[in-house]
Write a structure and sequence with these properties.
binds guanosine-5'-diphosphate-rhamnose, single chain, alpha/beta, NADP+ binding, GDP-mannose 4,6-dehydratase activity, binds NADPH dihydro-nicotinamide-adenine-dinucleotide phosphate, NADP, Rossmann fold, 493 residues, two-stranded parallel sheet
């Protein structure tokens, strides 16, 4: 049987070039490398996708990641941080591309992290949020159902659900049984995705888990989210690069943890005997004011009141006032506990932003202070011709004076060395399986294309050499999701 692949879906060119090995020869339905678990991650270019890709690679997985758009500038970052990753072109709004990604990767585990994840943006682009964050879940589940010939029990599925679903909270702390009352188009879309995940588990026997994750942050957080917006501004203010910071509601409270800890919980959910839903949180809540205390305190500023302004533009049409999760079930069943506390997290982010901003400033300083090339003195003007016909031959020009040697470039100010990031200790052995048991070959896998080597595309967009490719995403991108970068404009609300 000929491998089936939807037209237009290919492994990205740079990813294909970087594959550690060619796809092993397999007959339809037969995988030769059953001992190497495979994971497909949507949203691999985001904050969590990068941490999860690193985690799974370290655990010996073959990692496949879905990337969207043409010449996505984040591809290079993923390839650098997740060596050996195989990137597949696809989009959560495009079902055929998702079916193709499943067929090519033949995953044991699928982590659906892709979404429009910025709550503030979800009012401005509510339809896109619904399509991506909500309907995107349906499409990934359908891709798994279609590629699996209705047998959904063989691939384990993780859905990135959110504490935003609790919204106007009905009880505190929030747990798995707390009713939902979402307060934003994003929250509504996530609630749709959550219930679909539960429904596919109940309808098709899917091994589908929903992680109700509370806010988790890191130096890789997009600059539009309040933690990173604050830590970046604090770094810039302390370096004299920015005067003040403008925010919205300072009274809301969130349960903030470290993203590196939270991806471990996602993985643990898929190693259980049975699929289930889990709240993942620290159990501690802080206000934006406390976040400001911690961030400014890290650079020795005790009173930040004169440095922080408020602007109605950054307030939301409907706010989620207080979130705090009860992670008891995750602790008891998954053996998961958060490692990095609030103060340590904020210190980690401020320090990373300080290093980044100092480096960017030094680079700018170098460019700005490089001496201009010496201006050549004007050539002597020949004397006006005497009345009468112009001379047939121009008079000889005097030789220009030798160019002065440019002065040596000034040495840039020394960069402050970033303090070492705290390394979270490794988690204890989870109570259940660590290595995936080999699963019986799916009947669907027998009929589907087992990782065919993608044919060369007619006009391959190179992710490495495209001259049009920007070197960094715009500063106000809805979700930077990249390692800290020196963007300069104000983040969006
Ligand atoms: P990010 O915003 O950093 O990453 C979002 C990812 O989704 C990016 O890789 C982005 O790709 C991708 N994406 C967006 N639109 C599409 C699309 N149409 N097709 C395919 N991919 C798309 O989010 P996080 O890493 O912080 O969060 C991961 C997931 O967890 C999200 O679903 C988020 O809603 C959810 N979540 C996050 C929490 C948190 O505190 N971080 C808490 C609870 C839930 P690109 O880079 O190309 O834009
Ligand atoms: P959140 O995170 O909406 O909880 O969603 P965000 O950091 O955007 O906002 C947290 C709180 O801070 C208040 N706030 C501001 N927020 C931003 N972004 N910018 C500001 O200037 C500002 N001023 C005050 C907000 O009003 C809010 O109360 C995050 C995302 O990662 C979601 O994808 C995820 O599902 C939830 O966390 C759990």
């Amino acid at each position: 049987m000929q491998p089936r692949r939807p037209a237009g879906l290919t492994e990205t060119d740079s990813s294909r070039r970087r594959r550690r090995r060619p796809p092993p020869p397999v007959r339809p339905g037969e995988r030769k490398d059953e001992d190497v678990p495979r994971a497909l991650i949507t949203g691999i270019t985001g904050q969590d996708g990068l941490y999860l890709g690193e985690l799974l690679t370290a655990k010996g997985y073959e990692v496949f990641g879905l990337v969207r758009g043409q010449s996505n500038p984040k591809v290079a970052v993923v390839e650098r941080l997740v060596p050996g990753v195989v990137l597949l072109e696809g989009d959560l709004t495009d079902l055929p591309s998702l079916i193709g990604a499943v067929e090519i990767s033949q995953p044991d585990e699928v982590y659906n992290l892709g979404a429009i994840s910025f709550v503030g943006l979800s009012w401005k682009q509510a339809e896109l949020t619904g399509e991506t964050t909500g309907m995107g879940v349906l499409r990934v589940l359908e891709a798994l159902r279609i590629a699996g010939g209705n047998d959904m029990s063989r691939v384990r599925f993780y859905q990135a659900s959110s504490s935003e679903m609790f919204g106007k909270v009905r009880e505190t702390p929030q747990r798995e049984t707390t009713p939902f009352h979402p307060r934003s188009p994003y929250g509504v879309a996530k609630t749709f995705g959550h219930y679909l995940t539960v429904n596919y588990r109940e309808s098709y026997g899917a091994f589908a888990c929903s992680g109700l994750l509370f806010n988790h942050e890191s130096p890789r957080r997009g600059i539009e989210f309040v933690t990173r917006k604050i830590t970046r501004a604090v770094a810039r203010i302390s370096l004299g690069l920015q005067d003040s910071l403008t925010l919205g509601n300072l009274e809301s409270r969130r349960d903030w943890g470290f993203a590196g800890d939270y991806v471990e919980a996602m993985w643990r959910m898929l190693q259980q005997e049975t699929p289930d839903d889990y709240v993942v949180a620290t159990g501690v809540t802080h206000s934006i004011r406390e976040l400001l205390d911690a961030a400014f305190g890290r650079v020795g500023i005790g009173d930040w009141s004169g440095l922080v302004k408020q602007d109605p533009r950054f307030f939301r049409p409907a706010e989620v006032d207080v979130l705090v999760g009860d992670p008891s079930k995750a602790r008891e069943v998954l053996g998961w506990t958060p490692r990095v506390g609030f103060e340590e997290l904020i210190a980690m982010m401020v320090d990373a932003d300080l290093a980044l901003e100092a480096e960017a400033a030094a680079r700018e300083h170098l460019t700005a202070t490089a001496p201009p090339l010496p201006v050549r003195p004007p050539l002597p003007v020949p004397p006006p011709p005497p009345d009468g016909p112009a001379p047939a031959v121009a008079p000889p020009r005097s030789a220009p004076p030798p160019r002065p040697t440019p002065p040596p470039r000034p040495t840039p100010p020394p960069r402050p060395a970033p303090p070492p990031r705290p390394t979270p200790p490794s988690h204890p052995t989870p109570p259940t399986r660590r290595t995936l048991p080999s699963r019986p070959a799916s009947p669907s896998h027998r009929t589907l294309a087992p990782r065919p080597a993608p044919p060369p595309r007619p006009t391959p967009p190179s992710h490495r050499s495209s001259p049009d490719r920007p070197t960094a995403p715009p500063a106000d991108a809805p979700s930077a999701g990249l390692p800290a970068q020196g963007a300069s404009s104000e983040a969006r609300p």
